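Researcher: Excuse me, tokens okay?
***
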Amino acid sequence: TEAARLGLEHSQAEVAESAAAHDAAQQERQNIDAVLSVAGKEATGIESRLEILRQLQEQGEGFDEGTQAVLHGLDNPSFFSPAIQGALAQNIQVEPRFIPAVEAALGSALQAIVFKDPGVAESALLTLSRKKLGRATVIPAEWISRGTDLPREVPFGVLGRASECIGGSGDATDLARHLLAGVLIVENLETAFRLRPQHPSFAFATLQGEFIAHNGTVQGGQSGENTGQSALQRKAQIAQLDVELAASSVRLENLAAEWARAGELLDVASERLKFARESVQSAQVESASLENERRH
């Protein structure tokens, strides 16, 4: 009888431990499930923003009417589109910090469309004129100068050459670097005005987007209205969101693996609890049986 009593107590203790382990495993599974749900929603949000930005990029959002018409293939996409490499802004890489300066220096040239064939480029402009679809800037790839920026000494106080802020390779990159030859990037307009009289052979672009051209004209100011996102800013945001989505995907995979492991531990805990309860039942039956025998 004493042995039966001790067996029952042991079984009851095992049930208590098993129940605690089961509750802990269940709570862990629920916690991971909640984190996984939030992470999934975040990934979906990133994917949605990426899809919208890519659609705007493909549509040439922010470009002039004529530029968009050419990028869409005009009246004969099967003829024009294969010869189009894209607009300059769509095919260069610029560090986000320098985007306002590069945009100020390149200006309307950001919408220049690079063509693989001079003849098709000419036909595109003729079609624009004939159908009155707007104006556009085009350049055949073979006409792009491949020269590098002049190796002149850069004055003190300059952050760098604008041409060196263009990343990547290809015709668009070569064109951007050529157009930015002799353009220096400085912190602000005050620095640009201070350096320009001493170095008139250079043009200066600021991080805020002001620009002193080689001819001495100065562009600056800011609109109080929301002018929308530029093509380069959109491109940089797409690149950043691509990185975030990749990191989010890795996190989701890791969480899914944790969730699966937590499920396995919960299954083990459930089996242990089930076995412990069955043991208590058996011990109770045995104890009751021995008690009846003792009384009779």
